[in-house]
Amino acid sequence: MESQHSHNQLHVIFLPFPSPGHMIPMIDTARLFAKQGVNVTIIATHANASTFQKTIDTDFSSGYSIKTHLIHFPSAQVGLPHGVENLKDGTNSEILGKISHGIAMLQDPIEVLFQDLQPDCVVTDMMYAWTAEAAAKLGVPRIYYYSSSYFSNCAYHFIMKYRPHDGLVSDTHKFTIPGLPHTIEMTPLQIPDWLREKNAATDYFEPMFKSEEISYGTLYNSFHELESEYEKLSKTTIGVKSWSVGPVSAWANKDDERKTNRGHIEKNIGKEPAELLNWLNSKQNESVLYVSFGSLAMLGDAQLVEIAHGLEDSGHYFIWVVRKNDGDEGENSFLQDFEKRMKENQKGYLIWNWAPQLLILDHPSTGGIVTHCGWNSILESLSVGLPMITWPMFAEQFYNEKLLVDVLKIGVPVGAKENKSWNSISVEAVVKREEIGKAVKILMGSSQESEEMRIRAKKLGDAAKRSIEEGGDSYNNLVQLIDELKSLKKSKALGEKTD
Ligand code: UDP
């Protein structure tokens, strides 16, 4: 079926970066643009598109002007098997290097495609610094899609500018991040290594942040009441326009089928959502802890053992998502015995590889989450008013932890100390069972501290829901951005006529 878009309709290209934490929110955002009457084209390679195409087809059949433009991933040229096109498949540095090389090779064909498709605007992931210039060549606005918090962007900005960690005698000494409205202390070990000391990654990330400054503006999957002070700070210090249009997952995936399928990468090993829902239905409200470390982080055997004991010792119910690359490729016999025991005593439910996260978080039995502080998982938990145990691991996750614990006061830290690449597996456990058990007891217990956290999280959940309703802040921001882009298109057309 051909979509029925007219020449006058605003045409926006979305270019997602191939990792679930970047792709999922951008696809949701693209769908929201289409629902506001924009003609949307998403550019993706085959294997990546297959994770969201069903949803796009459904939207298209419902009359929205949205489609995917498929491009070929150069698997053979970079020496990768067919279908390995996403960062989550980069289970070792060699494969990851090849995937990154393949992604870099897409620049030329994508630039040609931009020329062919002649969009009115391109919304591109933060990771594609080169799109700022590509859009300038086309004479259209590039919108920088930042897939994390205003808070983390401000923290990055001030740490890069003032380098407060440089003079410290040790990597474990604390420094205060300059320029922020709250006193936020961190250690050099908690910031990404490329920022601690210059390395090859610095040459990638610095231009990436710089490309925001020459973009038309930035889209945030956030909402006004969550981090308004940091929204203001970012606008004044980074100096680009920005729009909060989140939480996009709650906005774009309102029904259960969407929640089950959203971002679904591979089949769960052996478990159907119905079995999971039965298990959750059998538990009391807010009694289950959901434990997930996102789509990339890999944990070693020793850490898995500590998590298992920590959860079991806490005495609380839990659902734990174990990735197949964790430990010994899912062959881990300790975990298999553990799973069996938890099944028998009904205390815990293990999900291998990929969980229907939105469905679990939205269930009334779920009462909290252990999170690696990936921004999407945070927003998805916040959207349903859940407090969190924070266990940051890599990238900007340690900043997000500070936002949850020190600013919003809805997080219990587990005590993570070191920012390490997501694919470097520690032989030793970095967090011990006692620390895990202690944090679980605080979060899931009935102390005043926990009650107050729960209340604050619920209030934020209500604010999140209001922001995406018609007339809410995020809703209005999206409408306003689209109007602005339409006006730009009109004035450009007028300019071309009078030239
Ligand atoms: N996700 C999911 N099921 C899983 C693991 C992850 O649905 O088993 C989704 C999760 O809901 C979120 C995204 O994948 O939308 C992960 O993004 P996040 O920013 O939380 O972390 P990352 O994977 O980038 O580290």
Helix content: 40-55%
What spatial order of strands do you see in the largest sheet?
3-2-1-4-5-8-9
Global structural class: alpha/beta
Number of helices: 22
Major sheet attributes: 7 strands, parallel
Radius of gyration: 22 Å
End-to-end separation: 37 Å
Beta-strand residue fraction: 5-15%
Q: Give a count of the beta strands, DSSP E runs of length 2 or more.
A: 15
Q: Cofactors and ligands present?
A: uridine-5'-diphosphate
In a few lines, what is going on in this structure?
With 499 residues, this protein is an alpha/beta fold.
Architecture blueprint of SSEs:
Blueprint lengths: L10 E5 L4 H16 L3 E7 H4 L3 H9 L4 E6 L3 H4 L14 H13 L1 H11 L3 E5 L5 H8 L3 E5 L3 H13 L12 E2 L8 E2 L6 H4 L5 H12 L3 E4 L3 H14 L3 E4 L3 H5 L3 H6 L11 H9 L6 E5 L8 H14 L2 E6 L10 H13 L2 E5 L4 H6 L3 E6 L3 H9 L4 E3 L6 H11 L3 E3 L19 H12 L3 H20 L5 H26 L1
Parallel strand pairs: 1-2, 1-4, 2-3, 4-5, 5-8, 8-9, 10-11, 10-13, 11-12, 13-14, 14-15
Antiparallel strand pairs: 6-7
Helix pairs in contact: 8-11, 15-16, 15-20
